[in-house]
Amino acid sequence: MDYQRKKKLTFSTIGLIFLFSGVEYAVILPTIWRYLQTLEAAPYFLGLAMSAFSLSGLLSGPLFGYWSDRTQTTKKIILLCNLFEIIGNFMYFMGYSKWLLLSSRLLAGIGTGAGSSIFGFLTRSTTSEDRTTVFAAVMACRQAGLLVGPALNIFLRLCDFHIGPFIVNKYTAPGLFMFLLWILLQLAVVFMYWDLPPMERRISNPHEEENVPGPSEEEVEEEVMPLMTSQELVGSYGSVTTSSMCKGHRSAEPNDSPVESPVTLPTHELPTPFRISITCQEFLREEVIVLLAAQFITLFNQTALETMVTPLTQKYFNFKELENSVMYCLGGVVVIVGFLLVHWLSRHFTERVVLAIGLTICNVSCIWCLIFLANPLGSFSWQLTEFIIGVFLQTLGLPFVAVAQVSLFSKVTSESTQGFSQGVRRSVGGLATILGPLWGGGLTENMYIMVGAMMALLILLTIMLAFSYKRLVEPTVEHVESSQPSTSGLST
C-alpha cells in the first residue's frame, strides 16, 4: 500500500476517534444525573463523576504523550487507551452501584489521554502550512459527535430489555452503545491506522516513497541538520550538540586524524535530565505561557457558560429537555460553521490573526452577556433574542481560539517532544473543565460576579496576547540563522 493511501486511512481513523469522543460526551451527559439518582447517589456525586473523567484525562495525557515521544509511535498507545474506554463504558452499562459508575468514568477518562499522542503525531506528520487546516478538521469531528449525540439519545431512551443479568434502559443504554462503538474503533485502528514517518524524515529522503535509490546515509545526516542551536548544551528546539565532548575525545587522537563534525541527538534519545531541562525551559517561554493561558481561559469560560445556560433557560424561558436538546444541537451547528470558517481563513491568514479574531469575538460575547444576560429586561421575545445573540457569539468565537492556539502551540514547542507538550496543554484544558463548572454552577444566582470574572480573564488574555503578538510565529530558518550562534561556534 502506498504512502498517500496509508495517510488517508490513518487520518480518517483519527477523525473517527474524535467523533466517538464527542458522541460519548453527548449521549452520557444528558442522562448521567438521573442514572445516579436511580443508584441513590447524593447530588455532589454528579460533580464527582464529571470531575473524575476530566481528572484522569488530565493526568494520563502527559504520560501517554511522553511515551509517544520516546517511542515515536502512537498506534499501541491508541489501542491501550481504547481498552480503557471499552472497559469503562461496560462498567457504566453494568451500573450496580454509584461507586462502580464513578469508577467507570475514571477509567474512561484515562482513554482520553490518547489525544496528546495524536496531536503530537499530527504535528510530526504535517507541514506547518497544512497544520491549522488538519487541526481544524480533527476538532470539527469532535463537534460533529457532540451534534450527533443528542439525536442518538432519542433512540437510546426507547431501550427497555434485558441481556442476561443486565438491564438495558434509557440510563444504561448509552454505556452499552459506546462499548460497542469503541470495539468497532479498536478494529478500525488495528486495520486502518499506521505510524507514519515524521515529515522531516520524509523530506530528507523523498526517494523513499518512490522506491528510487536515494542519497547515502551520510548525505541524509548532513541534510537533517538541527533547526536551532544554543549557547548551552541543550538546543531550544529539541536537539543537543555534543561537540565539546567530541573535542575532548579528539584531543587524544593523532594530529592528522580527520576532524569530526558535531553530533546532533534528537530529544527523544537524550538522557532523562536533558529532556526534563528542555521541557522546563520550553514551558517558561513567554509565547508558550500565553497559549496555555488561552487554552485555560477559553475552556474555563466555555464550561462555566455551559453550566449556567440550563438553569438560565429554565428560570427565564421555562425550557425543558426537548428545548435544551434543540438549543445544544443548534449550538453545535454554529461551532461546526465556525470550524469551517477557520478552515478557510487559515489558508489566507496566519494563526495569530485567527487567534486575535476569535479573542475579539469572545470579548464582545462576554460584554454582551454582562450587559444583557446578567439581568435580562424587556418582554419574553426580547429576552430570548438577547440570550440567542450572546450564546451565538460565544460558540462562534470558540473554534477560532481553539484551532489557532493548538496550531501555534505545536509550532512554538519542540517537535520531538510534541506528545508530552500536547499532553501538558490538554491537562491545562482538563483543569479548566473541572474548575469552570464549579465556578458557573456555584454562581447561577450571582451572574454579575460570574460573568464579570470571565470578562476579567479575557481582558488579561487580550493584554498578554497584545504584548507577545510578534513572538507567536513559527521560527523559520532565516530567523534561526540570524538570531542563533553557529554550530562551529559551540565547539570552541
From TrEMBL:
Keywords: Membrane, Transmembrane, Transmembrane helix. Its main location: membrane. The keyword Transmembrane helix applies. It comes from the Eukaryota. InterPro entries: MFS, MFS_dom, MFS_Domain-Containing_Protein, MFS_trans_sf, Tet-R_TetA/multi-R_MdtG-like. It holds the Pfam family MFS_1. The chain crosses the membrane at residues 42-65, 77-96, 102-122, 134-156, 176-194, 325-346, 353-375, 387-412, 447-467. One of its GO terms (cellular component) is membrane. SUPFAM superfamilies: MFS general substrate transporter (SSF103473). This is Major facilitator superfamily domain-containing protein 8-like. The lineage of its organism: Eukaryota, Metazoa, Chordata, Craniata, Vertebrata.
